[in-house]
Write a structure and sequence with these properties.
This protein has a domain of 94 residues. It is 74% helix and 0% strand. Helix 10 packs parallel to helix 12.
Length: 571
């Protein structure tokens, strides 16, 4: 029996039964290997759409697009063209068909095809419902195609019916793309169309402002919500609290946290974790644990992130024993330590120069089925370098490469630091050469490490060459490098070279550190260049730095009668 004849028999069966049963027949025949014709697909779609079974009609089209419903007589694209051109004469059914096709392509992650049929639908005079348009916008944004979403929105905003969700999707896309200007344009456009922004939209804007570093604008939006009778929810408070903390506005963040609780909004795990993290960063580990206890009293399930924050806080306070106890408690509460948990604990022991324990935790990480990351390796390499075990550090680099984890610029810089620290400059330059051969580009910090090594080694000629080469590489030396060079010249006894760099720094708007001023002034005085020393001392005062009494005495040793007046007025 030919496929056409089998499909005809199926159509005859489907005609005689309710649409639900017809759909069941259609799907079961597909599973049995029936090759459908455009007529059989057209029939079931017409039956489903005219009976209000839109989701089932869409599922048929998704099967066609994915190839689950296939035939030698049509391809997905040819069938769609045929369906939209020939088989649906009813205007209402035709509109529903286009809705189903667009949504089926959106479901199939095919935005170009979805947009093509949306354009065709509008061209034929059918207005898509908001939900269909929103689904397409959402797909573009989820596919990291915000620019495309914006173009589509801008082109079709006057041809489709927009709702609050249309604006919400686009505002979220703008904020994620970092384009706050467009998000506020949309807010204004929304208000002009008499649509009222909801809590979700304001929370999205507040989050966008916080991530853009503008917490004061975020606070203004938060205050505006009250005037619109919009009640801030857990997420609104959480993003604003976190935004304040990220900008170093600890007082404002804690005030918002207390306000949240006063207004009867129960903090969620995200809010609590932000507060715990801030206490840990501030070294207030006891307060962090008080918040942790409050979470458990309120039966708010802690996430592994919460435990990671506390473990990190304990490690920073050098309370490694307590950190390990908390680490092993994670399993007992039904959570599993993740790579961040292990990396945090490994770093704690490396910072404390307890490399053997760090390596034991590293081995436990691997035995528990987790894969070390580049951060894990860099932390251990730094740990080995810190105690002068460069052989151990290089063995880890070898292990990284065996695991197909490429050493990063950070990896090489840690090694450079290690070899500089033990005054093995030849090996440091060898590592630098390997880094550049691997395709990584050195930055100012990398060169700063090498310059520091040369200066400490007394190789000021080579340090000066490297320092001057920075401008040829279009790099601007930072204040740290200037201070290193000044210290090197002072150590060498070259007061005028140190003075030249000091003046160069000040001319570029940098502030030399106190050590640079003291070393330069001390060397000038040693060479009995008191006039130059006085000028440098005045620069120091002008920049808001406080010279010590001994430094004044050194410069003004021949002017003791003036010294008493100056000390009272300046120090």
């Amino acid at each position: 029996m030919s496929p056409s004849h089998e499909a005809l028999i199926l159509i005859q069966k489907m005609v005689k039964v309710p649409p639900e049963k017809a759909f069941s027949f259609f799907i079961s025949s597909t599973c049995q290997g029936l090759q459908h014709t455009s007529q059989s697909v057209s029939f079931i779609l017409n039956r489903l759409l005219s009976s209000g079974m839109q989701s089932q009609a869409q599922s048929v089209l998704v099967r066609v697009i994915s190839g689950q419903i296939s035939s030698s007589m049509f391809s997905p694209s040819s069938l769609m063209e045929e369906l939209t051109q020939n088989h649906f004469t009813s205007s209402s059914t035709c509109s529903l068909l286009y809705e189903a096709i667009v949504n089926a392509y959106v479901h199939s992650q095919s935005p170009d095809e979805a947009l093509y049929f949306l354009h065709e639908m509008i061209h034929k005079g059918h207005a898509p419902i908001s939900n269909t348009f929103n689904n397409l916008l959402n797909l573009f944004i989820r596919s990291n195609s915000f620019c495309r979403a914006w173009l589509v929105f801008d082109e079709l905003k006057n041809k489709v019916v927009l709702d609050v969700y249309s604006f919400g999707i686009m505002i979220k896309g703008c904020c994620e793309a970092g384009d706050l200007m467009k998000s506020f344009q949309l807010l204004g456009m929304m208000e002009k169309t008499c649509l009222s922004p909801n809590v979700v939209i304001y929370t999205t804007l507040i989050d966008g402002c916080c991530k853009n570093g503008d917490v004061h604008l975020a606070k203004k939006l938060f205050c505006k919500m009250k005037g619109l009778d919009l009640v801030a929810n857990q997420h609104t408070y959480s993003v604003l609290i976190n935004g304040f903390f990220k900008q170093g506005l600890q007082k404002e963040g804690f005030q918002m946290y207390e306000s949240m609780k006063r207004n009867g909004i129960v903090p969620n795990v995200y809010t609590y974790s932000s507060v715990i993290g801030e206490y840990c960063n501030d070294g207030s580990i006891d307060k962090a644990f008080n918040v942790f206890d409050e979470m458990r009293e309120k039966d708010i399930a802690c996430s592994i992130m919460t435990y990671n924050l506390l473990i990190n806080g304990l490690c920073r306070m050098k309370k490694l024993g307590e950190a390990v106890k908390l680490f092993y408690r994670v399993n007992r509460v039904g959570l599993r330590p993740n790579i961040f948990t292990y990396n945090t604990l490994i770093k704690g022991y490396c910072d404390a120069e307890k490399i053997d324990t760090a390596v034991r935790i590293y081995n436990e990480l691997k035995s528990n089925g987790l894969s070390p990351t580049v951060v894990t390796y860099n932390t251990l390499i730094a740990g080995y370098s810190k105690i002068g075990n460069l052989a151990g550090a290089l063995n880890l680099v070898k292990e990284m490469e065996e695991r197909n984890i490429a050493p990063t610029k950070v990896t090489y810089t840690i090694l450079l630091n290690g070899f500089v620290r033990i005054n093995y400059m030849e090996k440091a330059f060898e590592i630098h050469s390997l880094m550049e051969k691997s395709g990584l580009v050195s930055d100012v910090y990398t060169y700063g490490v090498l310059i520091h090594g040369l200066c400490m080694n007394g190789s000021m000629k080579e340090a000066s060459k490297l320092f001057k080469s920075l401008s040829e590489l279009n790099m601007e030396p930072n204040s740290v490098i200037y201070d290193i060079m000044i210290h090197g010249y002072c150590k060498e006894g070259s007061c005028y070279r140190a003075l030249r760099l000091l003046n160069e720094m000040i001319g570029k708007g940098m502030v030399p550190n106190v050590a640079s001023f003291c070393s330069t002034i001390g060397l000038l005085c040693k060479d009995e260049k008191f006039k130059e020393a006085e000028v440098v001392l005045q620069h120091m005062v002008n920049l808001g730095l406080k010279p010590s009494v001994s430094l004044y005495n050194m410069v003004h040793k021949d002017k003791n009668e003036v010294l008493g007046v100056d000390l009272e007025s300046v120090i």
